[in-house]
């Protein structure tokens, strides 16, 4: 892949040599086996935009909380040499704190209970892109700290819920998330990955398109 580049000395980054977060003993860790694939589906009595606004705001707060557990390890000094552009579409978006900083001013403006602007869907997609960058950065650069804090079960559960929600409503560009396709496949296709079986969890987009169009 184009983002997979060696360091100037010709050696691959350590994180690329061995992705600790993909080890079976870690990917099996969850805080719940709830069927997230069913949880993300739009309830009939709720407006689509209200559902997107409510869930996106919740994801922001949960991901912000997850990031805060390792924030002391994530500074300009410690992460400046990390090749996190593998997780981000541009260098200026590579830093997890910057992604959160870009997202935070936007999130409170989600118009819960008010009329939604025509640009609302694009706003939600922008926020989800930043949130994916933050999750990716945690896995790529700070999974060992997360493991030491015994919070990897929380991270895995949050990741599965977020990815299945984003797929249900086509909120993330597959090109943006391709960098973590290996992790997504493992987490979302496992028996506890979404409650809908491997094929359903890893191919949520087509059903989501039909679901949204019907509304």
Total number of helices: 12
Q: What Rg is obtained from the alpha carbons, in whole angstroms?
A: 17 Å
Mean pLDDT figure = 74
- Element-by-element helix/strand order: HHHHHHHHHHHH
Beta-strand percentage range? under 5%
Q: Helices and strands: which structural class?
A: mainly alpha
Per DSSP E runs of 2 or more residues, the count of β-strands stands at 0
Terminal residue distance: 37 Å
- Poorly predicted spans: 1-16, 81-87, 89-94, 195-215
State the gist of this model.
Zn(2+) binds at residues 74, 79, 137, 142. With 215 residues, this protein is mainly alpha-helical. The protein is 56% helix and 0% strand.
Protein model, in words:
This protein is mainly alpha-helical and 215 residues long. The protein is built from twelve helices and no strands. It has helices at 14-17, 24-27, 36-39, 48-68, 76-79, 96-103, 120-148, 152-168, 174-177, 181-189, 197-202, 204-214. Helix 4 packs antiparallel against helix 8 (152-168), helix 6 (96-103) packs antiparallel against helix 7 (120-148) and helix 7 (120-148) packs antiparallel against helix 8. It is globular, with a radius of gyration of 17 Å. The model is unreliable at 1-16, 81-87, 89-94 and 195-215 (pLDDT under 50).
